[in-house]
Amino acid sequence: MAQYGKTSYWDERYTKDPEPFDWYQRYSGIRDFINQYVKREDVILMAGAGNSRLTEDMFEDGYSTITNIDVSRVVIDQQIERYKDKPTLQWQQMNVTALDFPDETFDVVIAKATLDAVLCGEGSTANVAKFCSEVSRVLKPTGVFFIVSYGVPDNRLNYLEKEDLYSWNVSVHTVPKPTVSAAAVPSAEDANGVHYIYICSKGGTAEEG
């Protein structure tokens, strides 16, 4: 899995296979939570967008202002061409650990599988800290960091629940993993059968811990 932390891997992958691919979940699987935490008029950053259909599906559902970044120049160029008829969708090559945006730019930052990819790379602990710090910086005072991950709370909350560094409260939800067989749908309590959604809310009133 270490390759997921390398830009060269992603450039090669997107060159060989430019077709859209969604890690973990399609929009339909997480739509209820996105509708709960993200408003249609919000200014959104898709961090580590890849060639997921998530941005397109959200756009079709009324979320029109989405900036998409990815470390791979290959996929960004592909997406610029693919969505050239949708000018409110922006595409930029950028590393999530060093965001080239002013403070308090976005209402929401969405990271589907991106946190897990950063954790696969060298210096992962430091890079996750940089990622979270940058997200906290570019979020507005009442902004939300919306994370989709395979990582269990016992692990991921160690990176996210740092009140001295990030001014947000964290809540956790689960969604069933997609499955080809309806008869094999696992229960939400089955840790191996779910993905986790971590909602890091700034300026919230929720008291946790």
TrEMBL record:
A GO molecular-function descriptor: S-adenosylmethionine-dependent methyltransferase activity
Methyltransferase type domain span? 45-147
Which example biological process does GO assign this protein?
Answer: methylation
Instruction: Identify the keywords attached in UniProt to this record, alphabetized.
Output: Methyltransferase, Transferase
Domain of life the protein comes from: Eukaryota
Q: Gene3D superfamilies per the record? A: Vaccinia Virus protein VP39
Report the sequence similarity comment from the record: Belongs to the methyltransferase superfamily.
The record ties this protein, via PANTHER family, to: METHYLTRANSFERASE TYPE 11 DOMAIN-CONTAINING PROTEIN, SAM-DEPENDENT METHYLTRANSFERASE SUPERFAMILY PROTEIN
According to UniProt, the name of this protein is Methyltransferase type 11 domain-containing protein
Q: Which organism is it from?
A: Spumella elongata
Its lineage opens with: Eukaryota, Sar, Stramenopiles, Ochrophyta, Chrysophyceae
